[in-house]
Amino acid sequence: MGKLFVSLFFLFAANATAQQNDSLMIRRIADEILDNGKAYENLRVLCKTVGGRVAGSPQMLKAEAWGVKTLKEAGADKVWLQECMVPHWVRGAKEECYFTVAGVKTNLDVLALGNSLGSSAKGVTAQVVLINDFDELEKRKDEIKGKIVFYNYKFNKRFVKTFQAYGDASKYRGQGPSRAAKYGAVAVIVRSMTHAADNNPHTGGMNYDSNYAKIPAVAVGLKDADKLAESLGRNKALTVFLKTNSQMLPDVKGHNVIGELIGSEFPEQIITVGGHLDSWDPAEGAHDDGAGCVHSIEILRALKAIGYKPKRTLRVVLFANEENGLRGGNKYAEEAKAKGETHYFALESDAGGFTPRGFGFTMKPEQLVKVQQWSDLFKPYGVFELTAGGGGADIGPLARTFNTPLAGLQPDSQRYFDIHHARTDIFEAVNKRELELGAVNMAALIYLVDKYGL
Amino acid sequence: MGKLFVSLFFLFAANATAQQNDSLMIRRIADEILDNGKAYENLRVLCKTVGGRVAGSPQMLKAEAWGVKTLKEAGADKVWLQECMVPHWVRGAKEECYFTVAGVKTNLDVLALGNSLGSSAKGVTAQVVLINDFDELEKRKDEIKGKIVFYNYKFNKRFVKTFQAYGDASKYRGQGPSRAAKYGAVAVIVRSMTHAADNNPHTGGMNYDSNYAKIPAVAVGLKDADKLAESLGRNKALTVFLKTNSQMLPDVKGHNVIGELIGSEFPEQIITVGGHLDSWDPAEGAHDDGAGCVHSIEILRALKAIGYKPKRTLRVVLFANEENGLRGGNKYAEEAKAKGETHYFALESDAGGFTPRGFGFTMKPEQLVKVQQWSDLFKPYGVFELTAGGGGADIGPLARTFNTPLAGLQPDSQRYFDIHHARTDIFEAVNKRELELGAVNMAALIYLVDKYGL
User: Fold this and answer.
1) Cross-chain Cβ contact A158/B382 below 8 Å
2) Looking at the predicted structure, is the pLDDT value of residue A167 above 60?
3) What backbone torsions phi and psi does residue B384 show, to the nearest 5 degrees?
4) Would you kindly state where each structural domain of chain B is located, as residue ranges?
5) CATH topology of domain B26-88+250-452
6) For a Cys staple, B34 with which of A25, A157, A159, B212, CB 3.0–4.6 Å?
7) Which stretches within A273-357 are classed as H helix?
8) Distance CA A221, CA A228 (A)
9) ipTM
10) How many CA atoms does the CB half-sphere of B258 hold within 13 Å?
11) Which of B64, B95, B298, B322 is catalytic?
12) Per-residue pLDDT at A17
């Protein structure tokens, strides 16, 4: 037996043993979560006793208290609140939207977009211009003045990964109002970004361009969008009445809720895992992003429960405000920089509590190669895709500040945009085991990064 | 450039081009199904106009008519009914099950097991013996006589793939009644095979061993099972009243519903794709196995719609009776043998309409190696697991008769046993896109097997 062969043999054997030990440790984590998991019950409490929790709302404070209590119960060494000013947008009274043809009134089910301002008390009554995409808007810019622009851009069914359809369509919500206001539109109605077979409108954040009028803007469900399009097809002069009652009040004090397991060997190296605590108001923010919050807490709970002490500091962060400002993530990175912290790695769950299928990574290619060598350890738990690109909005500022390597959980996405930002994002839409498997795979990734480094 | 190199280069180039063409063809199939899919609407009609459809029931005939109509609309060259005698089990009036402690009556929500016979008209009243597993039954066999045996075997949460938990637990339903009757039990209550957080009982087939008394047998939901176990813990002499009203009537005539696209090159080589048309009665059989039926029809529809002509004959079979007899699959293989047909390949979908994750194959190792070389073609549609072992109950007889290679669709299994054989297996539990992606991947597999052979 030659020397090289012997060395290779031992190298191989050592590697095989390491993988076997890791596989056993991950099995222990999984058994703890599948047998004794608290994520589902924690989510139930958040959804049913707090509910929807827009930044600045009274529910925000209740959610923060829930976060502190739940992190303490999970066994964090230390739990604290990090102050953070957040926007304070309020929806106000229920929106009204309808048109009348031959004396028959047709109501459209709409939700004001987040950050949008209300119409005047008497509402807006105007003719409607159906616009399929921004190219058409530019071509027809002379027809827009004094009208309501109805963006009817369709969610593309051909994207198998639905986040691609969202990336493709969401600009009509984010930029649509100001791009229409630029040409004199008086309000905007946006077709909801969803595949759902129901008629629920899907709200979400928008941003006004300060160069143009801040006109009212709502989302409309698919059936009502089709109904409006049909009616416009028959009657080009159709007028719609729209009244929204939302306001942007001065910023208020909110908090990132943070809990830690202090590292045993390199306590100064921080691994962040988190989701965002705020949600839209029409539902309970169960998948978006209650799931991410309870995933993150569950990782800490499970590692503590099986007696595993991370070498690096594991920090669970429930970010204060993602939906309409990203103030939580920005504040977290800012303060980290001011304190000279070392941010070793960050993982976010903000794509729902469905069965996990993969992780997306934003890191150096050689780091990704290292992570991909762990792929067989994830397969028994359903994760087959470890791919470049991904992270999360809340941890983005860490990467921009420190070049921190990022990862984002990628659950099965087929159902996500059925409920995203709609009334249907409630606890009942979450499956216990799917939620738990998310936490299992996230915990496995944290364990491997903590043990082997990047 | 050496000769070998040139040859290898062309071989590689030819292969790469083939993969590229296949990738484009599969994309066309996927676009057709995602854009114009009929599977979801077909399933709605089956669930909402036919509903639950136990073999032998009036709904069976309505389901057959639905199958013929839907296959014709999908564009089958030929549609026919294959006669098949099926068992005729009827549940009868609603089951009653309760116990009374200190004057307080506690009802247990139960469903008679399929094929089980009813109690006498006055019901059974007896003490209950809680049995955790068959080992315990054997140890305590002397305590069973005159008692109701309550099998409280728990669905194992640690199996990530839930069908393994089902394989582990389902013997208590299938064999439990007769194994208890052997020792003189007068009835059996079985804990439902589910992870569900609700209290719905999950029925399913059982088989009497003709050596022992045919005692009544029911499934109980998890909350009521826990309640019964608790009450027994406090009061060993607890008696339960149980009344079931089911009967096994003489066999009646049913049908496998069959539709074909006739092969252009090898019409005599038959590729079967199917699911079973029968379902349990408490719900709509949406996932089990309406999904498999509409998956199979959708493959034929989509191939026809894009003008793809298979070389081999594609035969869609909606099997008459899987749940309590397998008469449909047996009849299909029998008649195939009698006619001297050639059964080249068979694929079944009978594991729900959730997001597809893989296929399981029962075929020769070299055939599996060939199939696994296609793996990159499935990944864009979410299928990452092409593994040994799998098929389906209905196509099993083909393999036993002809050694036909088999495959079974393996969708995500986390939600399946929440609804399996329970009142919750309804259309609303099915997601349109998840269902469609099952058909996309099945169609891709059929396309590749048809084109390249096995």
Assistant:
1) no
2) yes
3) -115, -10
4) 26-88+250-452, 95-247
5) Aminopeptidase (3.40.630)
6) A157
7) 291-305, 327-339
8) 11
9) 0.94
10) 23
11) B322
12) 81
Query: Going by C-beta distance under 8 Å and a sequence separation of 6 or more, which residues neighbour residue A384?
Result: A357, A358, A375, A378, B384, B385
Alpha-carbon dihedral B130, B136, B137, B138, rounded to 10 degrees: -160
A30 at interface of B, judged by CB pairs closer than 8 A = yes
Spans in chain B with pLDDT lower than 70 = 1-14
A423 CB contacts (<8 Å, ≥6 apart)? A200, A282, A283
Instruction: Write down the mean pLDDT value for chain A.
Output: 96
Q: Which two tokens stand for residue A266?
A: 């390199």
DSSP string computed for B89-145: EE--SPPEEEEEETTEEEE--EEEPBTPPP--TT-EEEEEEEE-SHHHHHHTGGG-T
B-contacting residues of A 204-233, CB under 8 Å? none
Whether residue A292 has pLDDT greater than 80: yes
Distance in angstroms (rounded) separating the CA atoms of residues B123 and B208:
19
Shortest CA distance from A383: residue in chain B: B384
Please state, in angstroms and rounded to a whole number, the distance separating the CA atoms of residues B394 and B327: 9
Q: How far is A31 from chain B (nearest CA, A)?
A: 6
Confidence of residue A7 (pLDDT cuts 50, 70, 90): low
Active-site residue, B265 included: no
Place of tokens 């106000």: A92
**Interchain CB contact of A414 with B (< 8 Å):** yes
CB-neighbour burial class of residue A3 (10 A; exposed 0-12, middle 13-18, buried 19+) = exposed
pLDDT for B1 equals: 44
Report the C-alpha gap between A46 and A28 in whole angstroms: 27
**Within chain A, how many helices (H) and strands (E) appear?**
15, 16
Say if the Cβ atoms of A431 and B437 lie within 8 Å. no
- Tell me which chain A residues have a C-beta less than 8 angstroms from the C-beta of B382: 160, 357, 412
Locate A179 and state its tokens: 């791009």
For residue A26, the SS3 value is helix
Tell me which residue has tokens 């899919």. B37
Q: Which of A50, A11, A21, A4 is nearest to A294 (CA)?
A: A50
Distance of CA B127 to the CA centre of its chain: 35
Model confidence at A160, pLDDT cuts 50, 70, 90, reads very high
Which one of B28, B383, B384 would you mutate to disrupt binding with A, by most A Cβ within 10 Å of its Cβ?
B384
Q: Give the C-alpha separation, A23 to A376, whole Å.
A: 9
In CATH, what is the architecture of B95-247?
3-Layer(bba) Sandwich (3.50)
pLDDT at B14: 65
Closest chain B residue to the Cα of A28, Cα to Cα = B158
The catalytic residue among A64, A95, A322, A436 is A322
What mean pLDDT comes out for the span A310-319? 98
Taking CB atoms and an 8 Å limit, are B162 and A433 in contact across chains?
yes
Q: Say how far apart CA A10 and CA A415 lie, in whole Å.
A: 47
Provide the pLDDT for residue B289: 98
**Nearest Cα to B321, choosing from B332, B309, B329?**
B329
- CATH superfamily to which A28-87+250-452 belongs: Zn peptidases (3.40.630.10)
Q: How many CB atoms lie within 10 A of CB A145?
A: 11
- Give the residue-averaged pLDDT of A86-93: 98
Q: CB A158 to CB B385 under 8 A?
A: no
CA nearest neighbour of B115 among B188, B195, B199: B188
* pLDDT at site A382: 98
When pLDDT is cut at 50, 70 and 90, the band that residue A68 belongs to is very high
Contact A371, A344 (CB under 8 A): no
